[in-house]
Write a structure and sequence with these properties.
Order of helices and strands: HHEEEE
Strand content: 25-35%
Largest sheet: 4 strands, antiparallel
Oligomer: single chain
Distance between the termini: 34 Å
Strand order of the largest sheet: 1-2-3-4
Shape: globular
Structural class: alpha+beta
Number of strands: 4
């Protein structure tokens, strides 16, 4: 099941990389990012800010105050990392 979740998450991020301008209010895009966060076991009630850092690389701010960095590492694995206080 772990590989299945990894495949689904990777697919979501690849689709996100193909999107145009990033807007936190874009329902489909927000849902895809929120699904990626949830699949990694993190909390996010609603996205209020999304910043595209590069291909398959995003920084997001959730309404509950959580901040995440979502990206694909060199091995092709999707990672969701909580942003530290100095990156905020």
């Amino acid at each position: 099941m772990g590989q299945r979740i990894l495949f689904i998450t990777s697919s979501i991020v690849m689709l996100l990389a193909a999107t145009g301008p990033v807007h936190a209010d874009d329902a489909t895009f927000s849902n895809d990012l929120m699904a990626t966060i949830a699949l990694q076991g993190k909390r996010c009630d609603k996205l209020i800010k999304v910043k595209r850092n590069g291909d398959s690389d995003y920084s997001v701010v959730c309404q509950d105050g959580n901040r995440y960095h979502i990206f694909v590492n060199p091995q092709g694995r999707v990672l969701v990392q909580e942003e530290s206080a100095e990156r905020r």
